[in-house]
Amino acid sequence: MRYACLSLLLLLVGASTLGQTPDSSGVEVLKFNWTKERLGWEGNPFGGPIENFDEVRARTRNEKRIEDAKRGSSADIDRIRREAKADAANIEAQHKNPTSRYAFVYKTTLKNNTEKTIASIDWDYIFLDRADQSELGRQQFTSDEKIGPGKSKELAVVISKPPTQTISVTSLNSKERDGLIGRVVVVKLQFTDGSAWQRSQ
């Protein structure tokens, strides 16, 4: 999963965790971390905004309506063009004063200690309470990444969902991670030869 953005400012860096105990998957978790990044910050050095999914959909819909209306009356075309122009003006106004948004980057580096080439990995990033080890949050990912026998690869996912409900999605707090312990678990492996490994419950 890729997250396109012209402005990406690193705000919080999570310390990598090394040497997690190997399990029966045959895949070793070498390190992992998560970061919180602010998007659309003031003073964007790259300038121009990019369209989000809703804006692309609105523009595409308006273009299709104009094409369809060309088969009808000219009054319909003029009305639809006015509506499309109003939509574009609203979008432009929103981009002039973008609000800060936050995204969360979850990373792990895995080593394939099996004799097969991995085609896809299901992995969970689990967050535990530092005090009592209770689970506070879990992010579940699927990474379609080939990893050959004996090879290592970093997997990264960018989403808007925070690690736990205690982590703010609208503000920056450098102490948010203090009470958390992270852990990465390999849940399922799909190999290029069609075979698979599944973690038992």
H/E element string?
A: EEHHEEEEEE
Mean pLDDT: 77
* Strand fraction: 35-45%
Q: Please, how many helices?
A: 2
Spatial extent as radius of gyration: 23 Å
Number of DSSP-assigned strands: 8
**Unreliable segments (pLDDT under 50, ≥5 consecutive)?**
1-19, 42-49
CA-CA gap between termini: 26 Å
Secondary-structure-derived class: alpha+beta
What does this protein look like?
Helix content is about 20%, strand content about 35%. Strands 1-2-3-6 form a four-stranded antiparallel β-sheet, with no helix packed on it. The protein has a four-stranded antiparallel β-sheet with strand order 5-4-7-8, with no helix packed on it. The longest helix has 23 residues, at about 75-95. With about 200 residues, it is of the alpha+beta class. Residues about 1-20 and about 40-50 have low confidence and may be disordered. The protein has helices at about 55-70, 75-95, and strands spanning about 10, 25-40, 100-110, 120-130, 135-145, 150-160, 180-190, 195-200. The protein is built from two helices and eight strands, in the order ββααββββββ.
Set down the secondary structure blueprint.
Layout: E1 8-12, E2 27-39, H1 53-69, H2 74-96, E3 101-112, E4 118-129, E5 135-143, E6 152-159, E7 180-191, E8 196-198
Antiparallel strand pairs: 1-2, 2-3, 3-6, 4-5, 4-7, 7-8
